[in-house]
Amino acid sequence: MNKLIVLCMVITIWSCSENTNFDETYQPIPVNVEVPANFPDMTYNLDNNPVTEDGIALGKKLFYDGRLSVNNSIPCAFCHEQAFAFTHHGHTVSHGVDGNVGKRNAPPIQNMAFQDKFMWDGASTHLDLQPIIPITSDLEMGETLSNVIQKLKAANEYQQFFKRAFEDGNINSENMLKALSQFMIVMISSNSKYDKYVRQEDNTTLSTLEHDGLNTFTTKCTSCHATDLFTDNTYRNNGLPINPQLNDLGRFNILENPDDLYKFKVPSLRNIEVTYPYMHDGRFSTLEAVLNFYDHGMVDNGNVDPSLLRADDSYGISLTEYEKTSIIAFLKTLTDYEFLNDERFAEYE
Amino acid sequence: MLSLTILSCSNDDDSNAEDLTGQTGNLVLKFDNGVGDQDFIFGTTYNKSNGESYSLNTLKYLISNVRFTDENGIEFEITHDENVFIIDEANANNAGEIWLTLNDVDAANYTSVTFGIGIDQERYALGAEGQGDFLTQAADAGMMWSWATGFRFTRFDGTYSSATITDEALNIHMGSVGTALDNYREVTLSLPNNARVRQTTTPEVHIKADIAKVFDNTTSVNFADGYSQVHTNVETTTVIANNLSTIFSVHHVHNE
User: Fold this and answer.
1) Is the CB of A125 less than 8 angstroms away from the CB of B178?
2) Domain spans, chain A
């Protein structure tokens, strides 16, 4: 009965505003999310959250709004800057409210609709729910869901945004999270030089160095950095020396399973040129440092991925200087300037 | 159209049958937490079989996918998006009962009730879809982890003691972990007498939950051996989830 009354009121309000303010009605303009030809299937079920222009607009507004944090000053974009493929430029680990410092390096936001696990340790298995972690983490945004919703309800402009984005127009956690997902779903990076090369677009060719790098990469790296997303979406321990200050146990924290000790999600390598520093704790500031680590820096911390064991019983991936140079040249072909400069994702268009 | 015809036919066959077509009513599930033959009371110390004792100051659990089966075997399920509830002892009335009033239940004579403890994989896979305000409510009730996006199926918080330990922290926050660990369990309870839902009759199903069985059951657990902090560990959460699935029973049904 109460619902009926509320519904009637909403309809009345709508009728009024239709006369005075055309913008506040739900007139969805569907956005077709295309899967790039060289990508695997999308994991996100768009049927549950059809992407619309107004949904993306709301998601973007939320993404850049500090009100999602306890002191109203740390938006998602604080640690996810577009120019750096939505990572926290130059920071080893993320910073949050009240000068708090997190434990891990902010991962890029790109091609999220193609992943089925999120965060370095897979703490979230659905894109919709992932933002709850940074929003409510004391080290990041330090806010509660109900406070965020209250603040959004109190801000006049959001009434209009939610009404345009969702049929029921409710300002609630479901719609807020769906809008954030819609914004992240369309953040697809698939137009790097490499993409155009494999899709044979614009007569794109790789240089000899880049091509040699691709060949070495295919031989030595793709058992983990698989598919054109450059990750097989598994958790692996790559033999990093343990940083006692952080003592980050990785995936172990999720299920308390000893087999998961020091395992982290295999990251995508797209836009890797701009997402420095590298590894879950940002310990390497250059790609050279990363490849040197794989060649001769790995240690046996007790649970290293067996695929990294060499014939001489040491852990690592042997790389010559030329292989390193060429792999880096190849990795730089994964930089997608269209994505990094796409105004649809920019705070100010 | 087809089902309507069939219904009409069977009504013709049995002229004594009450025609309940299109009629709905309400039904109340009364959750009554106890410990063995005692009512559950916050701060009271309860003894376990192994000599350990415990006392709780928070007692909550999630119930979902509530459905009923009638005398003809026909199942009625509460609307999916609204079919998830937080049972919180702090919301109990003076009789120690937490009332869950279910509206728009099809009129029928129900013989059993089925519900899940926690959140099933299907609902998890929907993400935010259909959650409305529930994510916010669950977060406010402390029924969500903040370090991972999962629900706590249970929140039993308090302290435990033994011959050698006094008032150590006790936190049973069992849940599923993504798709890797599924601790959702379902229970079906027969009703000792039918719950007759009518527009004018609201049956009350009195469900007893024996908290003692969470710890003393098919597998009896020792708090001192890893069961004072139960969060995501595969072994301990599975034992608690299995034990939980046997704590409920229907004591009686009022039809008034």
Assistant:
1) yes
2) 17-189, 193-337
pLDDT one-digit tens code per residue, B160-169: 999 999 999 9
Residue contact B146–A129, C-beta within 8 A: no
For A193-337, CATH gives 1.10.760.10
Instruction: Determine whether the interchain pair B146/A123 forms a contact, defined as Cβ–Cβ distance below 8 Å.
Output: no
- Contact list, B230 vs chain A (CB under 8 Å): none
pLDDT band at B145 (very low <50, low <70, confident <90, very high): confident
The domain total for chain B is 1
The verdict on A153 touching B (C-beta cutoff 8 Å) is no
Nearest by CB to A145, from B136, B147, B232: name it.
B136
Which helix (DSSP H) or strand (DSSP E) does residue B99 occupy?
strand B97-106
Question: Over 60: is that where the pLDDT of B8 sits?
Answer: no
pLDDT for A348 equals: 87
Domain span including residue B126: 23-254
Distance CA B171, CA B231 (A): 8
Same fold flag, A17-189 and A193-337: yes
- ipTM more than 0.85? no
Smallest Cα distance from B231 to chain A, Å: 9
Q: Are A324 and A332 in contact (CB under 8 A)?
A: no
Q: Tell me how close the Cα of B149 comes to any Cα of chain A, in angstroms.
A: 5
The DSSP result for A207-255, as a single string, is -HHHHHHHHHHHHHTTTTS-TTTT----EE---PPP-TTT---BTHHHH
What kind and span of H or E run contains A60? helix A53-63
Tell me the pTM. Answer: 0.89
How many other CB atoms are there within 10 angstroms of residue B251's CB atom?
A: 12
Chain A residues whose CB is inside 8 A of the B133 CB are 149, 172-174
Cβ contacts of B146 on chain A, cutoff 8 Å: 132-133, 136-138
Cβ of B149 and A49 within 8 Å? no
Indicate the pLDDT class of residue B178, thresholds 50, 70 and 90. Answer: confident
Tens-place pLDDT, residues A207-254: 999 999 999 999 999 999 999 999 999 999 999 999 998 999 999 999
Q: Which of B130, B132, B140 sits opposite A146 (nearest CB)?
A: B140
Q: Is B187 a domain residue?
A: yes
For domain A17-189, the CATH superfamily is Cytochrome c-like domain (1.10.760.10)
Among B127, B146, B177, the residue with its CB nearest the CB of A126 is B127
- Give Cβ neighbours of residue A188 (< 8 Å, ≥ 6 apart): A33, A36, A110, A111, A113, A339
Collapse the DSSP code of B126 into the 3-class scheme (helix H, G, I; strand E, B; otherwise coil) and give the result. coil
Q: How confident is the model at residue B16 (pLDDT cuts 50, 70, 90)?
A: low
Is there a contact between A127 and B132 if contact means CB atoms under 8 Å apart? no
